[in-house]
Amino acid sequence: MDVQELRSEIDQIDEQLVELFCKRMRVAESIAHCKKSSHIPIHVPDREQEKLMAVSRQAGPQLSNYTRVLYSVLFELSRSYQGKLTMEYTELYNRIQQSMAATPQLFPQQAAVACQGAEGAYAQIACEKIFKSPYIVYFKNMESIFSAIEQGLCQYGILPLENSAASSLKKIYDLMIRHKFSIVRSFHMQVEHNLLALPDANLRDIREIYSHEQAFYQCGEFLSTLPGVKVIPVENTAAAAKMVALSGRKDVAALSSRSCEELYGLKNLARSVQDKGSNRTRFICISKNLEIYPGADRTSIMMVLPHKPGALYKVLARLYVLGINVTKLESRPIPENDLDFRFYFDLETSVYSEEFVQLMCELDDLCEEFEYLGSYTEVV
User: Fold this and answer.
1) Alpha carbon 128 to chain centroid, angstroms
2) Helix axes of 170-179 and 142-150: crossing angle, nearest 10 degrees
3) Is the dihedral of CA 192, 325, 130, 236 positive or negative?
4) Which residues, other chains included, contact 343 with Cβ-Cβ below 8 Å and sequence gap of 6+?
5) Of residues 134 and 318, more confidently modeled
6) What is the DSSP string of 235-278?
7) Of 71, 73, 85, 72, nearest in space to 42 by CA
8) Which residues are paired to 345 by β-bridges?
9) How far apart, in Å, do the first and last CA atoms of the chain sit?
10) Other C-beta atoms lying within 10 Å of the C-beta of residue 260
């Protein structure tokens, strides 16, 4: 046989497969209704394991693993379809709906907002992009931002979540889980680091550079051209610029924003020294209360999955079946148990879509633990 004849044979087999698949799904539909009337859960792991073992034996050693993968996908498709047919609204779904009904139609223009660092910080710039007229309160560290909102000193907080050059600030995820906070907005900002010093300083005189540790990661190539210069991490890039301005020393500099150059009367010794020309940081706006504003089309969730092969694959397969795009996936070790991981997902789906509703009603069956971190719009 030539290739064309073999392809024709494949086409004939595919026609049969589609007919059998549709027939299988119709039977699954009937099973779903029987399960619902008898109060039997959709997911019956023992039955699936028995079936996987049976089809693996039937396929034989050469195709056993391929057959297991095929049927694992079939099971996910079947469960998703059955779940849609028998869907019952969960406590989480009801909480989301209540939040959507209670949240104002317009995002607040004015609010008391907690930011880390000092005036001129990148967080301040992000805050002023998210809010029209914010009242900004500065705090020394990230933990203080959460405490300020919990104590009622501020309504919102602005935090950096990830950077295109230095990955995620995973501590933020841990703090959100610990304090039960939600994301209400996000903003991607172009970050440009500059080497700032006193007006009478010169680059050859610099012996110490202050900045946030993330800024040092993002400017590694530039720093490698300054042998013998000591880098000193501080809590914030704006705080670094302020320290240099108050130091009275010509041998110190700060990696900071251009806004700090004018704000603190500093000299720009080297402009745009980050490693990547497109150095972007994603900031999130957090709230103690769950707020879901109209137009929310991004959702962040956290899962703890069983520590066994295929656990993550099953979640991704379910998202694929629902047509939900994953824009971010990261793992984070659970501090009290290094063998287990939390997985963080950013999903691209409207809160008004059927797929979102179905996912929110199915997630508990896919994982050991689950946290909904919020649905929101990303400001451009």
Assistant:
1) 22
2) 20
3) negative
4) 302, 303, 304, 305, 312, 315, 329, 330, 331, 332
5) 134
6) S-HHHHHHHHHHH--TTEEEEE-HHHHHHTT-EEEES---SSSS
7) 85
8) 301, 329
9) 57
10) 28
The count of C-alpha atoms lying within 13 angstroms of the C-alpha of 37, restricted to the half-sphere facing its C-beta, is: 6
Nearest to 145 by CA among 169, 181, 190, 119: 181
The DSSP letter of residue 42 is S
Predicted TM-score (pTM) of the model is 0.82
CB 110 within 8 A of CB 133: yes
CA 177 vs CA 31, 173, 180, 260, 300: distances in Å: 38, 6, 5, 33, 12
What is the residue-averaged pLDDT of the chain?
89
How far, CA to CA in Å, does 354 sit from each of 42, 322, 324, 365? 19, 9, 11, 18
Contacts of 193 (CB under 8 A, 6+ apart): 211, 215, 218, 219, 237, 255, 256, 257, 272, 273, 274, 279
Give the tens place of pLDDT for each residue, 326-354: 999 988 777 666 667 789 999 999 999 98
Distance CA 70, CA 108 (A): 49
Closest Cα to residue 141, out of 182, 180, 175, 191? 175
Round to whole Å and give the CA distance between 92 and 90. Answer: 5
What is the predicted pLDDT for the residue at 367?
79
To which H or E segment does residue 85 belong?
A: helix 64-85
What are the angstrom distances between the C-alpha of 254 and each of 204, 211, 289?
A: 14, 6, 37
What percentage of the chain's residues is helix, strand, coil (to nearest 5)? Answer: 45, 25, 30
Strand 194-197 to 252-256 pairing: antiparallel
CA atoms within 13 Å, Cβ hemisphere of 256 = 39
Helix (H, G, I), strand (E, B) or coil at 62: coil
281 Cβ partners below 8 Å, 6+ apart?
122, 126, 160, 162, 163, 164, 188, 189, 191
* Edge-first strand listing for the sheet containing 230-233: 230-233, 208-211, 252-256, 194-197, 267-270
Parallel/antiparallel/unpaired status of strands 156-163 and 280-287:
antiparallel
Joined tokens for residue 176: 């959100």
3-class secondary-structure state, position 19: helix
Where is mean pLDDT largest: 73-77, 150-154, 359-363, 367-371? 150-154
